[in-house]
Each structure stands twice: as structure tokens, then as C-alpha cells.
Amino acid sequence: MRRKAGLVLLAFAVFFTALSPMLRWYAFPRLAKVPANQYQDMVLEAEDATLLDYSTLKARKVSKVTIVQTLKGNVEASERIERTVDRDVVVWDGLSYVQGPDGEMVSRIPERYIFDAHTQEPVHAGGEMVDGDPVRREGIEFKWPFLTEKRSYEYFDAQTRTSAPIHYRGTEDFRGVEVYYFEQTIPWTKVPYPKRMPVDGVTPETLAGTGTTRWYTTVRKFWIEPLTGAPVYGEEIHREELRGGTLLGDRDKVTAFAGHVKMREDYIDHTVDLVKSHRTLVLLLTSYLPWGFLALGLLLLSLSLWLEARGRHPEDPAPAGATEPEPANA
User: Distance between CA atoms of 264 and 65, rounded to whole angstroms?
Assistant: First the structure.
């Protein structure tokens, strides 16, 4: 019985020991993915900002500018693309809606972002766009890869329609969560006007006809939870200007927008709580279960070897002085 029990324990020891690396290096990369139907929104604010009044073409100080960003998973589009590329794909239809302190629209920029559900790498399957303009993204946008590394990544900038490095700057503690801090600087760059302008009758074409151009620069900051690759907080020091042309009269340039954009406090709390719950799931697949199965396998192996050793131990000798009984005489 000891021999059989030892063999059973040995079989389970081999199973759990082999399962440990398979769970980490084979199962996790296939199980960890962004759901195709995910929906999320975020509100950012820039207090004491500068905003252009398009009716007078003069910059003015305002109490607050609000940016509402939404990302909605397009399941139908992702399933259609998956049939052609043979991989798990996520399609996010995004919208960045900017409004002034009076609630009036400043700009409205739609996006479509198509990426691999596991690696977050862009998938060029047609339909990628920013404000109706076709784009071909390189690098990441909105979300970092699972198990984010301490290095620079290419990050797509929707204003310039180009990608540039976003650099790892250090590890910090953000409200009880260990995060990696990344920073990207976009230098002054000429960018297109939004398709939707805040003044009726004013279009990008009419503005371009005056020779006046739009320029933009920003310092983009993200605090990323590395296991999930999810941003827990973000900021931008953002500036836009109109330059040259007949629209500005004798002025060389005028500020269209300038402000320090930050996540609103209630969205920070919600995001941190959400990331903490997702972080536990990733830890389960990358640490808790693999190390637990390895420890269990080693324990079962030790137990099976102990039972094998007990099975091979000779029987105890008979007590001293004991003799075989004499046969009875007939």
C-alpha cells in the first residue's frame, strides 16, 4: 500500500510541478486580454486655464475647462476583423469632448483604435482614424501591455497623428499601489484643425484659407500599474496656438488653449479601486498559483520519497530470547 500511495503522490508531484511554469509562461499570455466589450469614461479638468474666444479671436482666462474621454468596445467590428487576421482583436471607439466653463463645446474629436487584445500592439486592419482622418498607429495608446517593463515605449499622439517615445522615469507609490511613472514631451508641432469647430459657420477650410495655422505642444504624464498595464492617473501640460495668416490681424500668434489637465478626484478613486481588483487577478496567474503549485509539487515529491523509503525499511527483528516452539511429541 505504501508503494502505491508513493507512486500516486509522485504522479501528482510531477503534474503540479509541470503545471507551475505552464500556467505562467503558456496560459497567462493567452488568458490575459482586454475584453472586447469594455466601456470606460474619464473626466479631466484644467482649472484657471486660457481659452480662445472664437467670436472675438481673443484669449481669455476661464475658471475651468473640462475634457470628457470615453472608450467603447465595438464588439461587432472586432469580431469582423478577427475573422480576417486570426487573432483576438479589440476595437475601441473613443471620443474626446472638450467644453468650456459655460458648458459649450470647444472641440469634439472621435477616434477608432484597433489593437491586439493580449499585447496591446496596433492591428492595421483598416478603419483606424482620428477625427475622420485615416491613421496608421505605431506603439501603444491609452493602455500599456500587461507586465509593463521599466523602459521607453512608443506612444501615439492623436493631435500630431504620429508616435513618439514615452519614457520610464521611476517607480512610485500612488495611493497604496506601486506604479511606474512615464513622461512624454511633444514639441511645438503644426496640427490640423478639429472637424467640428465651436462657432457655427467656421470650418477648418475657412480657417486654412486665411493662412492661419494651429500649433500644439504638451507634456504627457502617466502613472501605470505595471501588472495590468492600466493607467491609474494621468496629467497633461497642454498648449495650443494659432499662428500667422490674416485671421489674427497684426498679431503673430494667439493662445487657443493653455492649461494643466488633471484627472478629476472621483475618477481617480474609481480607477484605483478598479485597477487593484484587476491586479489581484493578474497576480493569481503570474505569482500566486505558479509558486503555489511549485511548492505543492515539491511537498508531494518529498512525501512520496518518504513513503518509498518507509516501504524499503526492513521488518523489525524478533525480540531477544524468543525461540521457535518445539513440535509436540506424538
Answer: 12
Edge-to-edge order in the sheet of strand 253-263: 133-134, 129-130, 105-116, 89-99, 58-73, 39-53, 253-263, 230-243, 213-225, 177-191, 162-174, 153-157
d(CA 246, CA 225): 48
- The pLDDT tens digits for 251-301 are 999 999 999 999 999 999 999 999 998 998 899 989 888 889 888 888 888
| DSSP-assigned letter for residue 27 | I
Residue with cell 495608446: 141
Q: Which burial class, exposed, middle or buried, applies to 321 when counting CB atoms under 10 A from its CB (0-12, 13-18, 19+)? A: exposed
**Predicted confidence (pLDDT) per residue in 58-79, tens digit:** 999 999 999 999 999 999 999 9
SS3 for 46? strand
Per-state percent for the chain, helix, strand, coil, to nearest 5: 30, 40, 30
